Amino acid sequence: MIYRKDIDCLRGLSVIAVILYHYKFDFFSGGYLGVDIFFVISGYLITSIILKEMLIKKFSLINFYERRIRRLFPALIFVISITCILFQTILLESELKKLFSSVTSAILFYANFFFQSSGSYFSPLNEQQPLLHTWSLSIEEQFYLIFPIFLYFFFKRINLIFVITFLFAFFSICLSQFGGNLKFSYPYFEDSFQFFATPQFAFYFTLTRIWEILAGCLLAIFMFKNKKKYENKYLTLFGYILILSTILSFDKDSLHPSIISLIPVVGTLLVLMYSNTKFNEKGVFKIFNNTFFLNIGIISYSLYLWHQPIYQFFNKIYFIDSNISFKILVIFIILTLSNLSFKFIEKPFRKKEKIKNKKIFLYYCLSSFLIVSFSYYFSNIKDYSNTYSNLVLNISKHSKYFQDNKFICSTNADFYISPKNACILGKTKDPELALIGDSHLDLITLELEKQLIDYGVSAYQFSYRGCVPSINLKVFNDKRYNCDKYFNEVLNQIKINKNIKKILIFSRWSFNLKGERFKNEQGGNEIGEGHYFIPLDKDTLTESQNRKENILKNIETFIKQLNNLDNKIYIVMPTPEMGWEIPNNLARIVYYKNEISKDTLSISKNKFEERNKEIKNFFETISLKYKLNLIYPDDIFCDNLRCYSHYNNVPLFFDDDHLSSEGAKLLSQKILKLIY
User: Fold this and answer.
1) Is there a domain that residue 587 lies in?
2) Is there a domain that residue 25 lies in?
3) Domain with 453 in it: what CATH number?
4) What is the distance between the alpha carbons of residues 661 and 446, in angstroms, rounded to a whole number?
5) Does 125 or 290 have the greater pLDDT score?
């Protein structure tokens, strides 16, 4: 196949988009689409090469897989090895086990399923994983295992190949578009059909992503059949515009993959089909076809491999998410490493005269076996008890506060507990106290129950993780939540239970109001998706201020109905959000830097007050109207200047915003002193 500079330039643009997205440069909110462009290019090139070799009867499956091994695995194995060595110096036990498990998944081609089991591509559980980006390599490798064999056996029926490939691609895009309407249990379909119903598993799942690779395959088959050279500078330019516009306009909330993903895919197909060197190096086309993009494209594979682990290594030590200068330094580092690995790893292994075919298979099998064996040892066998000091272990264990305890009394998106079956905390059978809230309430209940027992009283726990205490609201774009139903049932239970005299409400108020994750402007940017509340009769996000006004209105309506039941109402005002996951990061600082101070991982008191100004003013305004008793936790966590994440080297938070056992104990003591 004739070498095309424009394809390497397109690779360069794509890998830059991915890097700038992962490095959180705002203008590249859709930079993750660079992977989709790679998928299309890969399908097109592989199919074109195979068809040409079959035509001249030089194709061999063994030779094909030998070339794939030469192209992909030496650099991958090298980067994985260096990543493991680097991160062993800074990761804690649970993090190391997750890393080595991901290593195995990358080597054995199932990284997409591994990371799918940990949550969304944009979720906190995955975003900071050093080898997260290998999910896309796994999908490509799964494609390589099947599609060439399909071409090999049906080559003489090229029209049948095209039809079957088209039908499978059509099935794949339909699954990515409508798959959210499906369920894994009878009756297997949601009650109401939604046109945009991207399933949660779609981003990583092979069957919902393979259509992008097959789109490239279809183009290659079409051009092979027609034996015609296409050229159109206007369609090529339109293709570039489609690619660039989606990279700049898509974001983590875009319904991707779905039918709208056709925009960058079609753009890529137009460039691959109609681009020509006659006009590529002239005028506006030089924006996309120049020496810079070409050189980046040539080393794009190494760049892609290096960018995630190097960035996450520095981010875990120096919290560089908001530091532009440090990000530029990291980009310089990965460019240097990529050039070196391309020159000394990629290029030598591609030369058959240096490394024979039999040896490349032997090297691949042996190195893969060794890496998987080492990974299994480090993730399942190795004893880490003597690796860390007692202080490091005592700090980091607070990160397991949620998973090591039975928080079984709270409703969540996947498990509904009717308020009539609510847990009773404490010893007495007829509680006079009702606790209402979300996960922030749920996470203090273990310590709160100890205090209730000491006081000789008990309480009902009415908590729904991810739902703000209110009525007439639902979670945007997530049908699993039944917030309105739950809190209306809570109102009914309190109404019919005459023993309840006091009500305590505790929620992550400002996050529920704004829907945006917390950024502390000191390098701590809470990772994860937004979480927005909208009216029951709406399906779209309104302008931010209107949305907040509606949320406050419905919180007040809920409180008003509670107040009409003649109960004494207590509101726990906001606790600090930190922006960092506290236990592991605090333990890492002690482990890596061997130092800790009171200010370590603290945030500005002004930032805390700024974040919570609207909700504070709201509750203070309505407090007289409904005779609310406001409980301020500030003095537990903050002084006049800072809000602190730990006390006497004990974390006050188990993640970045939920309280740890120590934080929960301190807050529970204050709550019950004020109530009783």
Assistant:
1) no
2) yes
3) 3.40.50.1110
4) 8
5) 290
| pLDDT at 352 (0 to 100) | 77
Domain range spanning residue 527?
407-578+603-644+658-675
Separation between Cα atoms, residue 653 and residue 452, nearest integer Å = 22
Q: Note the pLDDT of residue 432.
A: 94
Of the two residues 334 and 406, the one the predictor is more confident about is: 334
CB 372, CB 92: distance < 8 Å: no
Provide the pLDDT for residue 556: 97
**How buried is residue 564: exposed, middle or buried, by Cβ count under 10 Å (0-12/13-18/19+)?**
exposed
| Cβ count near 466 (within 10 Å) | 19
pLDDT at 566: 87
Q: Which DSSP state fits 535? A: E
pLDDT at 122 over 60: no
For residue 191, pLDDT over 70 is answered with no
Range scoring the smallest mean pLDDT among 311-325, 443-457, 575-589: 311-325
The answer to whether the CB of 162 falls within 8 A of the CB of 169 is no
Same domain, 235 and 373: yes
Q: Would 397 be classed as within a structural domain?
A: no
User: What is the length of the chain?
Assistant: 676
* 3-class DSSP assignment, residue 505: strand
The answer as to whether 188 is a domain residue is no
The model carries a pTM of: 0.83
* Tokens found for residue 182: 């499906």
Burial of 453 (0-12, 13-18, 19+ CB in 10 A): middle
Average pLDDT for 105-131: 82
Confidence grade of residue 94 (pLDDT, cut at 50, 70, 90): confident
**CA dist list (Å): 174 to 167, 192, 203, 654:** 10, 17, 14, 41
Q: Are residues 335 and 220 in the same domain?
A: yes
Question: CA–CA distance from 353 to each of 348, 357, 537 (Å)?
Answer: 9, 9, 68
Cα–Cα distances (Å) from 495 to 394, 490, 607, 623, in that order, read 45, 8, 39, 21
State the number of CA atoms in the 13 A half-sphere of 178 facing the CB: 10
Instruction: Name the residue type at position 461.
Output: Q
Same domain, yes or no: 143 and 282: yes
Q: Which of 199, 192, 99, 213 is nearest to 148 (CA)?
A: 213
Task: List the one residue out of 137, 144, 135, 138 whose CA is nearest residue 116.
Answer: 135
457-469, pLDDT tens digit by residue?
Answer: 999 999 999 999 9
Q: What is the DSSP string of 647-676?
A: ETTEESBSSSSSB-HHHHHHHHHHHHHHH-
Cβ atoms of residues 518 and 511 within 8 Å: yes
For 166, the token pair is 């088209």
Mean pLDDT of 215-233: 92
Helix (H, G, I), strand (E, B) or coil at 26: helix
The whole-angstrom separation of Cα 299 and Cα 285 is 21
Distance CA 214, CA 212 (A): 5
Instruction: Identify whether residues 354 and 419 lie together within a single domain.
Output: no
Q: Which amino acid is at 420?
A: K
Higher pLDDT, 199 or 485: 485
Other beta carbons within 10 Å of 225: 13
Tally of domains within the chain: 2
